[in-house]
Amino acid sequence: MNQAILFPDREAWEADSQALCFPVQVNGMPLTCAISEESLRRRFGGGTPAFWLAQFRASRWDLEEEAEALIAVDAFDDQGWLWLP
């Protein structure tokens, strides 16, 4: 894992965004990664935030690797969020 990129274990469902959000620190700067409800349904099935949080935790390492690849190409949106497909 790249030491300049850290993923604290503080994932949460954000009802306003309808997404599972998880923080990342890139060179000390706090940023937000997110996976939309649509992407969660496509990836894992299910239909509840509790289910998706459990699936996220079970797949954490793979999802963090995906996020690292997107960080490397600066794939942040206009608001500074990184959305996993």
Q: Can you characterise this structure?
A:
InterPro entries: DUF1488, Shew3726-like_sf. It comes from Shimwellia blattae (strain ATCC 29907 / DSM 4481 / JCM 1650 / NBRC 105725 / CDC 9005-74) (Escherichia blattae). By secondary structure, this protein is α+β, with helices and mostly antiparallel strands. The chain has one domain: Double Stranded RNA Binding Domain. Helix content is 36%, strand content 29%. It is built from 3 helices and 5 strands; from the N terminus they run ββββαααβ. The chain has helices spanning 37-44, 49-58, 60-72, and strands at 5-6, 12-14, 19-26, 29-36, 81-84. Strands 1, 2, 3, 4 and 5 form a 5-stranded mixed sheet that branches. It is globular and about 35 Å long. The relative contact order is 0.20. The mean pLDDT is 94.
Pick out its properties.
globular, Transcriptional regulatory protein, DUF1488, 5-stranded mixed beta sheet, Double Stranded RNA Binding Domain
Indicate the topology.
Blueprint: E1 5-6, E2 12-14, E3 19-26, E4 29-36, H1 37-44, H2 49-58, H3 60-72, E5 81-84
Parallel strand pairs: 4-5
Antiparallel strand pairs: 1-3, 2-3, 3-4
Protein name: Transcriptional regulatory protein
InterPro entries: DUF1488, Shew3726-like_sf
Pfam families: DUF1488
Question: Summed up, what is this model?
Answer:
By secondary structure, the protein is an alpha+beta fold. The protein has helices spanning 37-44, 49-58, 60-72, and strands spanning 5-6, 12-14, 19-26, 29-36, 81-84. It has a single domain, classed as Shew3726-like (Double Stranded RNA Binding Domain).
